[in-house]
Amino acid sequence: MPGFRPRALKPPARLRFAERLAGHSRPLPLFQDLAYGNLGAVQSHRQAASGSINKIVQVPGAIVACAAASGGHADYSDEDREAPLPSDNNAGTMVVLHQGRCHVVDAHCIGHGVSAKKYYTVNDVLFNPLNPEQFISTGNDCQVQLWQLPKVDEMEMSESITSAPFMMNSMTFGDVTQDLVHSSDGVNIAVSCRDGTVSVFKTMDLFTSFTWSRTMPPPDPETKLHVAPPDVDHAAGTVLWGRGPTERFMYTSSEAHDSDGEGKDKGFHRAHDISRGRVLFSFSAKESGDAGAVSPDGSTYVLITCGENNQHPMRLYDIARKSGHSVVKTTLDPSASQAATFEATTAAFSSDGRLLAVARSDNAVHMYDIRALTKGPLARFKHEELDAVGSAGYGAVHACWVEGRDRRRVGIISGGNDGCVRVWDPLIASSEKSQGKVLARTEFDVAYFAMGDMWAGEKPLVLGHCGGGLYVYDHLDGDGLPIC
Fold first, then answer.
1. Which helix (H) or strand (E) holds 403?
2. Main-chain phi, psi angles of 437, to 5 degrees
3. 141: which of 120, 203, 333, 369 fits an S-S bond (Cβ 3.0–4.6 Å)?
4. Residues 478, 395: Cα–Cα separation, whole Å
5. Which residue, among 408, 333, 415, has the nearest Cα to 378 in the 3D structure?
6. Nearest to 197 by CA among 272, 288, 298
7. Which residues are registered as beta bridge partners of 413?
């Protein structure tokens, strides 16, 4: 009809519906998507531990933290053993939160004098990957100790649950026991040692109490590895298991005992075949070990080292092909803070293996695309600087990845010496005010934190600081009560 102009029609219903589907609407910021704004402290233990928190691990219903002790160093001579203890060498090197109760456990300690005890620093803790009611610890007393949580009848969980974890057994090593790492299938547990050895045990042999007792010799390791030649005075540094096609292999780095002495910048980096108990190959890096990470598919190994003039090379290795020659090599950015030197404290792959987060002691966290390592960081995130008063701190001590609810968006969680655990969203510009939102804040430097899977019954966040405080966070409803 002349002059007729039809009205604008609405889009078909199927298109209007599609606009509301995931991927067609503007995504929520990661902090909001994960409901981190509803996170609050549900347990606060301000001085539960004896010193700075070294490690936190958790399973549904239980959290274990280990800590440093004043004067809790190893005893290498009679003079060390007989030296007076500091007045603040107290219990608190191991704290266990179990079924809502806080237990300060007498771990890694010996009698000292007539009535006193010496508490040694506890370096690491790890839950039995095959039985979450048991865990293992290492300490400066050169021991590995195995622990059992009290048995709790699910039908009778009440205020009457007061019994603390008890030690099942202990093993003495030739030097300070350091890190604990288990294989991807949980069948093996490795114990690294200051003397440069890594002992690999069958998990079942360690935790099956009726196979050995305090009156019988402990089980021998399946394999004992050396991270450096016998004539080199190096300690075990980074120890990592492979995954998938490399799950029977282990990747180790060495570090000089004297960080200021001759050869302090030298290191040895090896791949070991655990099933055969031998060195598979050596990596091309020659500097001292800093940090490392194995990709989720077990095909790639990133090794960060520290060399002369505080240079930090980062190399990418194709371990699926058992190659010790780096595929790509680059160097970490120099420190932009007042610190003249720094170290890489943590390296972590995203779940798809494409992105790498590197936490640094200069309070920074850098994100890389491993397909373009030589182009430098994709993003540079920075915790706030310390106030004028206070020590230099340890910087960003830990970092891990989180995923949005649709599992397509990722972010980095890190803790720094500004006392904050922060969320970094790669889709937000580093200069945006919403970048690095505070997830939790404490009055001391963050020493360690552990993120948990709340769908599996774990707590979303457990935070430990350098003053010995331990805090548990959970999602809260509008009345400030935990969401069950």
1. strand 398-403
2. -60, 145
3. 120
4. 35
5. 333
6. 272
7. 400, 423
